[in-house]
Amino acid sequence: MENNNQHYYSEFPNVEVKIYTISESLRRHLYIFKTITGVFSFRKIDLGTKVFIEHMVIPKDPSVLLDLGCGYGPIGIVLGYESPDSNVYLIDINKRAIWCAKENIKINLNRDKKSVLTLSGNYFEPIKNKNLKFDAIYMNPPMRQGRKDFLKLIEVIPSYLKSKGYFQFVIKKKMGAPYILNFVNKNFPNNNIEIICKRSGYWVFRFFQLN
Ligand SMILES: C[S@@+](CC[C@H](N)C(=O)[O-])C[C@H]1O[C@@H](n2cnc3c(N)ncnc32)[C@H](O)[C@@H]1O
Fold first, then answer.
1. Domain 46-209 = CATH 3.10.50.40
2. DSSP conformation class of 151
């Protein structure tokens, strides 16, 4: 990585464009994903993403859901497939990722365009004037950017959740999952954090407001 535009979390990654097609069975359904160089885990679905998708809790009732940092869209697209009456938003800063996510929605979901929406920008920036709150927010966070950014993000998450809403995320144990667990327990007295599962070195969490 020679400059900032070569990271998968750049707005405009500066690497030669190559498009790939990958297929993956997730929650017993086969998905086809178009991916592109410059986007997170473009050669194959990330193991953390896979563990997360297999264990994430999806509301049964029609809901408003967000895949934050969607990449080429695997989490949001599974949400769109498994929760056909929910509105799903997918946000990413990387324009190539958003291009893929749009293509992958068309490939994998037979749904009204407006009910699964992609938005590009810095985390909640693209929805800041929409007055939106979510039943659930899902994320495989970019821990390579450092823990500090993720801890700052956790602070704003409750303001985007409905009162019974929750934030689910996955972190590799070696990338600081135990640290995040301790930090949240110490610093968020109005919230609870629970571990949904520990698999293959990844911890899947659910973070929610205490009543
Ligand atoms: C670890 S990747 C996960 C991608 C995808 N959810 C998956 O599981 O394959 C994290 C994603 O967060 C995105 N991201 C990083 N910083 C961001 C920001 N400030 N705003 C929006 N997305 C961001 C990156 O571009 C990347 O696609």
1. no
2. H
Residue 183 identity (one-letter amino acid) = F
Angle at 179 between CA 163 and CA 124, to 5 degrees: 40
188 CA to centre of ligand 1 in angstroms: 24
Contact 76, 67 (CB under 8 A): yes
Residue by residue, pLDDT tens for the chain (211 residues) are 344 566 788 888 888 999 999 999 999 999 999 999 999 999 999 999 999 999 999 998 999 999 999 999 999 999 999 999 999 999 999 999 999 999 999 999 998 888 999 999 999 999 999 999 999 999 999 998 889 999 999 999 999 999 999 999 999 999 999 999 999 999 999 999 999 999 999 999 999 988 7
* Minimum CA distance residue for ligand 1 atom 3: 140
Question: For a pocket test of ligand 1, which of 5, 6, 9, 143 has the largest count of ligand atoms closer than 8 A to its C-beta?
Answer: 9
Angstrom distance (rounded) from CA 106 to CA 58:
21
Dist. CA 126–CA 202, nearest whole Å: 29
User: How many CA atoms does the CB half-sphere of 24 hold within 13 Å?
Assistant: 24
